[in-house]
């Protein structure tokens, strides 16, 4: 009893909001935005620094630095996921990722030669792997099952924000203050992100103090159920009692579903302490590969990465060649494309929670196809901007149901944790973003109609993704539902 009283006295201040899934969403979402901001803010300045160091083949060397980042992501993702699940640790791994990220930025800023720059980019990729693998797992841990898609959608807003704001900020800071300015800015912003990582409290720790964000989130539903029970009792009181005496039954103990939130928190704490032993890394990977839902989500993530990154190096060149836009005007086009994504990702996540991932993923992919085709036209600039923004809406809306689908796979697959599924997602996306720029750049430069080829590539990836989603995404995929409907007609 004395130990319990001592524990209560040490209850962390602000426990409720620090452990809430909304605060976790803000921390993870800002971490994603800052990670991609730091990644992209130095892209415009790397070629100039390579030239200053005396290198001539600047374009190819820049490409290898981008590849080094992806190499860091791919090499670190699986060990991070394994460690996170084996020791059930999230928060301190996020802080470790921060330290690696800051160290890589400082190393890159002070790099005396190309070899050190390459090592710095590899380390930056390692730090990014912490954010994506552990951060998404932390968010899935803290969020109730019925709200996972919505919260992942809000967190994913950080993707377009970081990728779009990084290059123009990097270019402006480099022009005004020199080479070190973008790195100093990136380190400063990352320190702000550290505050959230230090303040946050994991759900497994909050439960020990009598607070579970899952229970609090479902309190409204519990109150609604209690109200219905009270109304039912009032109706029963109106009914006339039978004339003959009825033997009285012993009082019924409240069921598990009617237990108080405090009791539910206690049960959750027991569940956390007695959770099943995780599978080995090899068996976890094998279990994921045996799940058609997981494999489909990974393939769609790969296609998503190819689609996004294949257009990035070519859109500015296309806008300049056809309509004569300078870098500032191109930046405005990219910023305009952000606005639809701020709506699409949380909206798609909310609809995923309400309807299911199968009803969102395939339609969003399919509806993006005509707008990718319109981008081929070179007649009207406003038409291009409209099509580009609508395409961004549908493409960005895909990631929320896909990540929610992976969370569902982790919950239903014994021995597989959130870190496992999100590490595989991170690897698939990293491979896609490694392939995309190379393929897109080569197609644009070497083919007679390079821009048309890139748009056709986008149409192909959207089409392939929509077919895969139609056949495999969801607990009951749309193809299965269609077959059942045909058999019953």
Automatic annotation (TrEMBL):
<protein>
    <submittedName>
        <fullName>MFS general substrate transporter</fullName>
    </submittedName>
</protein>
<keyword id="KW-0813">Transport</keyword>
<dbReference type="InterPro" id="IPR011701">
    <property type="entry name" value="MFS"/>
</dbReference>
<feature type="transmembrane region" description="Helical">
    <location>
        <begin position="58"/>
        <end position="80"/>
    </location>
</feature>
<feature type="transmembrane region" description="Helical">
    <location>
        <begin position="293"/>
        <end position="310"/>
    </location>
</feature>
<keyword id="KW-0812">Transmembrane</keyword>
<feature type="transmembrane region" description="Helical">
    <location>
        <begin position="152"/>
        <end position="175"/>
    </location>
</feature>
<feature type="transmembrane region" description="Helical">
    <location>
        <begin position="21"/>
        <end position="46"/>
    </location>
</feature>
<feature type="region of interest" description="Disordered">
    <location>
        <begin position="244"/>
        <end position="264"/>
    </location>
</feature>
<comment type="similarity">
    <text>Belongs to the major facilitator superfamily. Vesicular transporter family.</text>
</comment>
<dbReference type="GO" id="GO:0022857">
    <property type="term" value="F:transmembrane transporter activity"/>
</dbReference>
<dbReference type="InterPro" id="IPR020846">
    <property type="entry name" value="MFS_dom"/>
</dbReference>
<feature type="compositionally biased region" description="Pro residues">
    <location>
        <begin position="244"/>
        <end position="253"/>
    </location>
</feature>
<dbReference type="InterPro" id="IPR001958">
    <property type="entry name" value="Tet-R_TetA/multi-R_MdtG-like"/>
</dbReference>
<keyword id="KW-1133">Transmembrane helix</keyword>
<feature type="transmembrane region" description="Helical">
    <location>
        <begin position="115"/>
        <end position="140"/>
    </location>
</feature>
<feature type="transmembrane region" description="Helical">
    <location>
        <begin position="416"/>
        <end position="439"/>
    </location>
</feature>
<feature type="transmembrane region" description="Helical">
    <location>
        <begin position="181"/>
        <end position="200"/>
    </location>
</feature>
<dbReference type="Pfam" id="PF07690">
    <property type="entry name" value="MFS_1"/>
</dbReference>
<feature type="transmembrane region" description="Helical">
    <location>
        <begin position="92"/>
        <end position="109"/>
    </location>
</feature>
<feature type="domain" description="Major facilitator superfamily (MFS) profile">
    <location>
        <begin position="24"/>
        <end position="477"/>
    </location>
</feature>
<feature type="transmembrane region" description="Helical">
    <location>
        <begin position="383"/>
        <end position="404"/>
    </location>
</feature>
<dbReference type="GO" id="GO:0016020">
    <property type="term" value="C:membrane"/>
</dbReference>
<dbReference type="InterPro" id="IPR050930">
    <property type="entry name" value="MFS_Vesicular_Transporter"/>
</dbReference>
<feature type="transmembrane region" description="Helical">
    <location>
        <begin position="359"/>
        <end position="377"/>
    </location>
</feature>
<keyword id="KW-0472">Membrane</keyword>
<feature type="compositionally biased region" description="Polar residues">
    <location>
        <begin position="254"/>
        <end position="263"/>
    </location>
</feature>
<feature type="transmembrane region" description="Helical">
    <location>
        <begin position="451"/>
        <end position="474"/>
    </location>
</feature>
<dbReference type="InterPro" id="IPR036259">
    <property type="entry name" value="MFS_trans_sf"/>
</dbReference>
<feature type="transmembrane region" description="Helical">
    <location>
        <begin position="330"/>
        <end position="352"/>
    </location>
</feature>
């Amino acid at each position: 009893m004395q130990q319990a009283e001592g524990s209560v006295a040490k209850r962390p201040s602000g426990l409720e909001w620090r452990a809430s899934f909304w605060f976790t969403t803000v921390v993870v979402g800002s971490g994603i935005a800052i990670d991609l901001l730091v990644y992209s803010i130095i892209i415009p300045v790397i070629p100039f620094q390579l030239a200053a160091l005396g290198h001539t083949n600047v374009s190819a060397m820049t490409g290898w630095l981008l590849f080094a980042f992806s190499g860091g992501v791919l090499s670190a993702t699986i060990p991070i996921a394994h460690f996170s699940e084996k020791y059930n640790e999230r928060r301190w791994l996020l802080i470790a990722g921060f330290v690696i990220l800051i160290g890589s930025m400082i190393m890159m800023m002070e790099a005396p030669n190309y070899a050190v720059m390459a090592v710095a980019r590899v380390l930056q990729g390692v730090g990014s792997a912490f954010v994506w693998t552990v951060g998404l797992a932390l968010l899935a841990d803290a969020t109730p099952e019925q709200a996972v898609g919505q919260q992942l959608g809000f967190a994913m807003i950080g993707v377009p924000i970081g990728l779009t704001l990084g290059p123009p900020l990097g270019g402006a800071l480099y022009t005004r203050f020199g080479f070190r300015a973008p790195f100093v800015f990136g380190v400063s912003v990352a320190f702000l992100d550290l505050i959230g990582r230090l303040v946050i409290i994991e759900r497994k720790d909050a439960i020990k103090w009598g607070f579970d964000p899952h229970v609090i989130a479902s309190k409204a539903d519990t109150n609604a159920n209690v109200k219905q029970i009270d109304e039912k009792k009032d109706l029963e009181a109106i009914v006339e009692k039978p004339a003959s005496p009825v033997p009285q039954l012993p009082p019924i103990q409240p069921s598990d579903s009617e237990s108080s939130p405090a009791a539910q928190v206690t049960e959750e704490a027991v569940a956390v302490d007695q959770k099943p032993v995780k599978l080995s890394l090899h068996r976890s990977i094998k279990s994921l590969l045996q799940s058609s839902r997981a494999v489909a989500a990974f393939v769609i993530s790969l296609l998503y990465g190819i689609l996004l990154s294949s257009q990035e190096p070519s859109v500015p060149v296309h806008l300049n060649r056809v309509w004569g836009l300078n870098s500032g005007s191109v930046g405005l086009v990219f910023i305009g494309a952000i606005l639809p994504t701020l709506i699409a990702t949380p909206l798609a996540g909310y609809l995923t929670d309400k309807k299911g991932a199968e009803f969102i993923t395939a339609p969003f992919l399919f509806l993006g196809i005509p707008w990718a085709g319109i981008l081929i036209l070179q007649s009207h600039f406003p038409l291009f901007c409209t099509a580009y923004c609508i395409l961004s809406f549908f493409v960005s809306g895909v990631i929320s149901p896909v990540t929610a689908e992976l969370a569902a796979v982790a919950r239903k697959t014994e021995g597989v944790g959130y870190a496992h599924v999100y590490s595989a997602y991170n690897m698939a996306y990293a491979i896609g973003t490694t392939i995309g720029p190379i393929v897109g750049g080569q197609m644009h430069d070497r083919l007679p109609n390079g821009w048309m080829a890139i748009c056709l590539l986008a149409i192909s990836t959207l089409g392939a993704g929509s077919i895969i989603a139609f056949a495999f995404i969801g607990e009951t995929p749309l193809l299965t539902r269609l077959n059942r409907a045909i058999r019953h007609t």
